[in-house]
Amino acid sequence: MFRVTILDGYIDEPTCLGVPPYISPYPRYIAGAIWNFDKNSQVFYVTIDQIRNDNSLLDVLSKSNLIVVIAGMSVPGRYLSGFPASPNEIIFFLKGLSKPFKVLCGPAARYGFGLSGGKKTREIKIVEDVFDIIVKGDGEVVIYELLTNKFDVEKTNSSQCRMDANAIKDYAVNGSNIVNQHPFYPDYLICEIETYRGCSRSIVGGCSFCSEPSKGLPDFRSIESIIAEVKALYDTGVKHFRIGNQPCIFSYMAKNAGKTEFPQPNADALEKLFKGIRIVAPDLKTLHIDNANPGILARFPDECKKIAKTIIKYHTPGDVAAFGVESVDPQVILKNNLKASSEEVLSAIKLLNDVGKNRGNNGMPELLPGLNFVFGLEGETKNTFKINYEFLKKILDDGLLIRRINLRQVMPIPDTKMFKTGNKIVLKHKRDFQRFKRQVRENIERPMLKNILPAGTILKSVYTEKNKGKVTFSRQLGSYPLLIGVPGRLQLHSFLDVKIIDYGYRSVTAVPFPLDINHASRETIEALPDIGKRRAIRILANRPFKNKEQLVKSIDDPLVGEKILKYISIIE
Ligand code: SF4
């Protein structure tokens, strides 16, 4: 029997995420291509984290006929539940496996290994000896051809891309079953869903740092194809989806896409898409979006307002439309052919605030903008940081809400205009960037978090992901979820409701709600408002409490006792 192992080293691209709890379309399409070729093939899916934790899995790899590695970060982030594969690690795990045919796919194969923002990608040469073929084109297309050619590398074009979006229609459905081998399946796994690729702004060259224009003009998947894929995944047991794999969700099926830089959004198409998803996946738990072009929202406010309302009608709350702002310095905008001026970004922020700021049933606002900034671009001066800071301050002072501000340094990617400039501007402004970041964290993000989530807000279905020291880091599942530190070591991989008690720069502190005071840990009790170590010890010494009155009596200050009642429950 033909055996394949897909080793997911995770990917992170501007328009696609595949780091747990996310699974990107790459492994799903590739599995679909293999099963399309031979439906009896055995396809194993394993993540780089599983191999790190259990080297015996290398046995599975060694017994395969084919190993497909998916890797590469072109916008590296900070991750909680998985860490992307490094080139050295891939070499370490694969070099001893001589028999299986080995293929590398994903952004690493196309652009090299991204290590961190501000640095050029590491050349692919480093892993060349380990792989039989490095796929510059689309993994699913090249692998299908490789199988057809009986592994004849000479006959196989490693740069081959799909003809059009229709080419992945069957692969997307047939490969959906692979998700049930993911360690986060079914309850904690989010499937990233593609609606199209390519950017309308390719016709004017696109933004200087972005790899998306190299994918050409927008090539939309049909509504039916996307819905069929969601249905297949849902039928397999997936409950969390992000319609995130595209440059701008508001531009899906836009009129004149490919003919004009800013095509007119198609509200009807988005209504059909989101409605169709809810029909085939009625009990899904997460339905979120990702990127949006603020230039589109600013130019077509009526259509975009309608689309935002449609999204809110069918999605789940806590949704984020990530605006690629990059910079509001007019010089930087001009020199890098960026998509929107500061006025346009501001009007797009206002539009989403008008429609999306109300709190949804999981405690988060329905739909808010997130802002992505990139530093180290052409035209950047020290004044750029001042201009961007003042812009953010204005947003805060105007009472507008932004769910997230992402500040990163450019990663010069081959085939982009910024590749020639490299990281020289990044190095020149290294200190300015660090200072700016600190200022934004302290003076913008923290007060913004307080505006979005006042103390006492209850957040529902928070997933416990990692214990670190005496804190449990948790998040709701979805697009750019807020990091929540819960004092105490809670059981991992479970869902709970929490109540917010304090704020970090980009995170909040919260306690489980309602807090079972008779069984909670000292660290959790200590974190309750005005309790602290001394009172927590007294509470522990007086447990168990039969009722709330007993609890209040055990605290030296009755006002403090009364204050914590709204956080707790008494379970004997
Ligand atoms: S608008 Fe700019 S950043 Fe967005 S996908 Fe197009 S080229 Fe890339």
Throw out a few tags for this protein:
binds iron/sulfur cluster; 36% helix; five-stranded mixed barrel; 3 domains; six-stranded mixed β-sheet; 23 strands; 572 residues; 22 helices; OB fold (Dihydrolipoamide Acetyltransferase, E2P); Rossmann fold; alpha/beta; pyruvate-formate lyase- activating enzyme
Task: Describe the overall structure.
This protein is an alpha/beta fold and 572 residues long. The chain has 3 domains: 3-166, Rossmann fold (3-Layer(aba) Sandwich); 186-452, tm_1862 like domain (pyruvate-formate lyase- activating enzyme), CATH 3.80.30.20; 458-569, Nucleic acid-binding proteins (OB fold (Dihydrolipoamide Acetyltransferase, E2P), Beta Barrel), CATH 2.40.50. The strands form 6 sheets. Strands 1, 2, 4, 5, 6 and 7 form a 6-stranded mixed sheet that branches. Strand 5 (66-73), helix 4 and strand 6 (101-105) form a beta-alpha-beta unit. Helix 1 runs parallel beside helix 7 (139-148), helix 12 runs parallel beside helix 14 (342-356) and helix 15 (382-397) packs parallel to helix 18. It is globular. The model has no long low-confidence stretch (mean pLDDT 94). Bound molecules: iron/sulfur cluster. Residues 199, 201, 206-207, 210, 212-213, 247, 293, 324, 339 line the site of iron/sulfur cluster.
